[in-house]
Amino acid sequence: MTSLNKSVRKKSKPKSPNQTQDDIVYCHIFDAILEQRLPPGTKLNEEALAEIFGVSRTIIRRALLRLSLEQVVVIRPNRGAIVAEPTVEEAKQIFKAREILELAITELAVENATPEQIKECRKLVEEESAAYALEDLGRGIRLSGEFHLKMAEMANNAPMLTFQRSLVSQTSLLIAQFESGHQSNCSLDEHTVLLDAIEAGDKAKAHTLMVEHLSHIRSKLNLDAEDASNDLHVVFSNVIKQKS
C-alpha cells in the first residue's frame, strides 16, 4: 500500500447525505494537502487516486480540476497534476492581495450583513473551534476559510466573492506550507470580536480588527527566511567552514 493510500484511508470520514462523490474526493485531497500529508510538488496520479477512492478517473479529474481552479493543485499538460508549491515571493503577493480585498469586504459587510448571515458565521466559528480541539488541522483551516467566504457573501458584491474564493484557497495552502507551529486556532477569538463589530455596525472598529487579524496571520507565516537550497555546498557550508 502506498503512503498516499495509507494517509487517505487513515483520515477517511463518514459521507454526508449532501455530499457527492466529487465532494468527498475533493475534501480528502484538500485536507491531505492542508495537513502536508501531500507536500508541495507531490504528483497526484489519477489511476492511483481512482483505485484508492473506488471511483472513476472522470470523478478524480473533476476533483483535481476544482482544486486547480482554487490554485492549490497545478495541472500540467501531458504530465498530470501536482500539489502547488508557491514560492515565498508568490506567497507574499497572494497575501498582499488578500489584505487589500479583505478590508474592502469588511466595510461592505458592515453595511450589508443580515442577522441570518451573522448567525451562520458564528456557527462556523464554533465548528472551527471543535475541529482544532480534535486536532483536525485540515478541517480547521478550511472552516476558517469558509468564515472569510461568508464575510464576502455579507459584502453582497459578486466579483469580490469570486476573487475571494481563489485567494482563500491559496491562503489556506500558504498557512499549511509556511505557518510556524500551526497555531491557527488563536484566530478564533478574533473571528468572534470581528463578528461583534459587524453586527454592531461599527465600521471603524471592524476595519481595525481585520487589520489586526490579518497582521497576526501574516506574522505566523515564515515568509522572511531564505529559500532552502539543493546545493550540497550551501546545505553543508558549516561543515566546510569547520574544515577550513
Automatic annotation (TrEMBL):
InterPro entries: GntR_C, TF_FadR/GntR_C, Tscrpt_reg_HTH_GntR, WH-like_DNA-bd_sf, WH_DNA-bd_sf. Residues 1-20 are annotated as: Disordered. Residues 19-86 form the HTH gntR-type domain. Keywords: DNA-binding, Transcription, Transcription regulation. GO terms for molecular function: DNA binding; DNA-binding transcription factor activity. This is GntR family transcriptional regulator.
